[in-house]
Amino acid sequence: MVMLFLGDVGGGELLLIMLVVLLFFGSKQIPQLARGLGKGIREFKDAANGIQREIEKSIHEVPAPEEKVVERIEPKPLQEYIEPEIVEETKAELPEIKPAPGSIAREV
Question: What is the C-alpha to C-alpha distance for residues 11 and 50, in angstroms, rounded to an integer?
């Protein structure tokens, strides 16, 4: 039997460990200790398997696209963005454009 921290444990060493456990805990306590140890190992394995399942599930699961909230902004007339004095100055500087002869033009 090879354990990580004990190295090679022979039959004599194993018998000595069992004798010390029997003397320290008594014959009535050993089954309860073994049961508690078994339950602890089982719970640890169940938790490890649950975590592994969750990781595998999250790897294979495609994330849902996030909903984007778009606020609709109504356009305002250009005059609300520009000061009235600037609009009047610009109108005065623009030359009057006349339609070319023979073109289709409407009065606005």
Answer: 37
Count CA within 13 A, CB hemisphere, residue 7.
1
* Predicted structure pTM score: 0.39
Specify which residues 68 forms β-bridges with.
Answer: none
Measured at the CA of 56, the angle between CA 42 and CA 40, to 5 degrees, comes to: 10
Phi then psi for residue 2, to 5 deg, are -115, 125
Which residues, listed in sequence order, are joined to residue 3 by a DSSP beta bridge?
7
Average pLDDT over residues 68-95: 68
Q: Which residue has the higher pLDDT, 86 or 48?
A: 48
The tally of CA atoms less than 13 A away on the side-chain side of residue 62 is 2
Separation between Cα atoms, residue 21 and residue 24, nearest integer Å: 5
Structure tokens at 81: 């963005």
Lowest mean pLDDT among 15-24, 39-48, 53-62, 86-95: 86-95
